[in-house]
Amino acid sequence: MNRPIKPIEKPAGLADQVFQQLRSYIGSHQVRPGDRLQEAGLAMQLGVSRTPVREALARLESEGLICAEGRGFVIPELTDSDIDEIYEIRFLLEPAALGSVVKEFGGDTDLAGLSGAIADAVAADKNGDVQAFIEANSRFHNAWRILLPNRRMSKLLDQYVGHVRFLRVLTLVDAAARRAALKGMKNIHAALKKRDPDAAAQSMHEHLETAKHFLIMAVAKINQEKEAESSASTVHAVKTRPSRTNRSAAAR
Fold first, then answer.
1. What is the pTM of this model?
2. Same domain for 46 and 120
3. Same domain, 209 and 93
């Protein structure tokens, strides 16, 4: 037979499905900072081969959501220094970036994406839909970022957008954090509408200050939960450990 046989196509996007699933687990705290992810174990749990898991883990690592450790990966634990470093970068870049957007602003047409994202965030907050709120919040920030006239600055923001999304998931599960984020989004929208670059930069800075505050609280809560679980496990181990009397009796 002269005609070549076309290879059977593998299911499209399997690695992407694994990536989305694992990112969802990280964001919902089903796996938490300090937890390890092993390729073989994940493949077995997800019912897939190790190849899409390997690709998904590599993508998660590139976005800063996990880091390599030994033969596996671990969800990075955020220290106070980590949070300070992350927000030092954000304070430098994002207020200046938003201020530059105002200078190139095209009016209500450019506001449409932000307005729609705010409307969706309001509805999601009213319904208590955390995932929908997070997605609306991401769309809001993407809407102003695509207006950046400085392409190099835009690429710098792109480099850590995945990690920032992870931080949003850590914080926006809290209702108070969602209300504060929504207030910040509205303030940013108002400053853009007025075409005031200084007000836009200031509103972004305040928005980031609030986000940092809630991130610190979220990380502290996760650490407290982990300490409580560790203490509970220790108590359980002590209670279930055979006493010396029982061990002696069993030996006789």
1. 0.73
2. no
3. yes
